[in-house]
Amino acid sequence: MxxxxxxxxxxxxxxxxxSGAAGGMAAHVLTSHGLQVLLLxxxxxxxxxxxxxxxxxxxxxxxxxQLPPDSHSxxxxxxxxxxxxxxxxxxxxKHLKSYIGSSDYLKNxxxxxxxxxxxxxNYAWVRARCLGGKTNIWGRLALRLSDYDFxxxxxxxxxxxxxxxxxxxxxxxxxxxxxLGITGVKENLPYLPDSIFQRPTKLNCAEVTLKDSLAKMGxxxxxxxxxxxxxxxxxxxxxxxxxxxxxxxxKGGCDIHAAFDSPTGLIYPAMDTGNLALRTNAVVxxxxxxxxxxxxxxxxxxxxxxxxDYAVHAKVVIVAASTLESARLLLLSKSRQHPxxxxxxxxxxxxxxxxxIMGPGVAGRAKNLVxxxxxxDDGRPGGFYLTRFRNLADKHPKxxxxxxxxxxxxxxxxxxxxxxHGFGAAFKEEVRKNQGAFxxxxxxxxxxxxxxxxxxxxxxxxxxxxxPALRFHYKFGDNEHRMAxxxxxxxxEMFEAAGFEIVNVSSRVLTEGWSIHEMGTARMGSDPxxxxxxxxxxxxxxKNLFVVDGSAFVNASCQNPTWTIMSLCWRSxxxxxxxxxxxxx
Length: 585
Ligand SMILES: Cc1cc2nc3c(=O)[nH]c(=O)nc-3n(C[C@H](O)[C@H](O)[C@H](O)COP(=O)(O)OP(=O)(O)OC[C@H]3O[C@@H](n4cnc5c(N)ncnc54)[C@H](O)[C@@H]3O)c2cc1C
Ligand code: SF4
Description:
Layout: E1 11-17, H1 21-32, E2 37-40, H2 48-52, E3 71-73, H3 76-81, E4 95-97, E5 119-120, H4 147-150, H5 152-156, H6 166-180, H7 205-216, E6 221-223, H8 262-271, E7 276-279, E8 282-289, E9 296-303, E10 309-319, H9 323-332, E11 356-365, E12 384-386, E13 403-409, H10 424-434, E14 438-446, E15 454-462, E16 468-473, H11 478-497, E17 501-506, E18 545-547, H12 562-581
Parallel strand pairs: 1-2, 1-10, 2-7, 3-4, 5-16, 10-18
Antiparallel strand pairs: 6-12, 8-9, 9-10, 11-14, 11-17, 12-13, 13-14, 15-16
Helix pairs in contact: 1-8, 1-12, 6-12
The structure holds flavin-adenine dinucleotide and iron/sulfur cluster.
């Protein structure tokens, strides 16, 4: 890998802000077009294999995999009874982490809440400030969207349609599949298009029982479609194929990089072209504009550690700091020409913020498996995905849009999932008897993109670098709560139909933000008065500015966003490179 330093006197073809799924993809596509690209990442490059230690046994870890005693990770109750910023009241903890930072393996990957405060309504905001961002620990469920999502307004009248159709993005989904690798099984579903899959994983016994039972109800359960290469990728020397070690269960993170992550999947290969300069520890605080033209001219960034301020220039600026940080950056970039923030003449930056609602689910036991010998069920990067079934052919009387379930069964790391209580020999016996019989699933539902759900800048609170913090004005609405009711009921109904003994049905809705699937804060559209970006994620106001992450989404769908983020980004960067060559930017 060729590492080159940032050159502050040079005008780069493009600056990319953020190195996660979106920024990594922008770097890959633009460097492959021969552009000279500078990638700026706020966090550091971590020795990620040492952080993840995917194969470490719990008994080899001093805290059994939990956080060290000087650190605290916020719980559901703490998110509920306290208001952001979440720092005050936790003074005893040296480091304060979001709920996802509850493990020793993620402690350096997710941010410290005190250094990165935010205010407003309750929100479980998970951020990973390091090279690769959240892709280092993502759950890998890699799903496509369809015209049920892109043209959802045509179906139920709510919100806006996307300015693209499935046929526009399908070739780019194919490119992402082939370049990064994905495992799954073809189902020919119009609302969940198939990918170009590598070798699939196998469903286990209870999962097959559930699948067969669901088929009688006209519902579809399929293998977890994971952004993992099961056959290997000959074109990428930084990644290995999946050996089915099952360590995915440890809140993501694959230290042999069979699971996609942005550094090994996109950034290191981009550096090998010789066209990419990478500057880590570079916290971008403002996108600068040319006072004559109002076009983007570059950025100001602060060194994460020395706190020194730098300016750097480019012909095109690409924002890929993740949905909420990208909105923050646009709002921070005020100038005479753009007094309400960059690309914000519509007033829509920060608005239409949407995500997935989580919480309702069910856990149970396949009674016929209790007491049977253990099988090697955890040697897979995921269990199953139960696809959307609401508001497809029928119309639900109580809510619009849909939801799917992620779940799994089988023998996994002791004693997860068995719900066994007690201690000593009897407890061990109970765990052994039940662990292969456990089956559970939880729902992910579409949160409607509404203008009144938004983020703006807090007038007082600043982060460690003196940059104004984000303020949330965001709540689930009636449609989401009615959908959550239905999730609980259908989860129970489906487990009963499969003949499982139900151990627990959860109706609890988790705090906003829990899904870690933020979208919509700079949406695409054809009308510059009601959208921020055009169909190529190019600002309507500033033609050499692109926002290529989940900000651009017009609605949330109920399918996980990352594969769509990368496919859209690839399409936009092809367009960008072409326009730049033609002198149109
Ligand atoms: C535990 C977990 C499980 C998940 N599971 C799934 C899943 O199964 N399927 C799915 O589709 N998605 C999943 N996701 C979400 C997925 O990780 C994100 O959709 C994806 O990473 C978004 O990519 P991004 O580039 O927009 O943001 P990120 O990956 O967060 O990258 C943004 C980068 O920008 C940097 N940055 C931010 N601000 C600045 C700044 N001012 N200056 C410079 N750099 C900056 C950050 O440090 C970060 O590295 C999961 C996430 C987590 C944490
Ligand atoms: S099961 Fe596969 S993808 Fe998951 S951690 Fe192991 S090797 Fe990586």
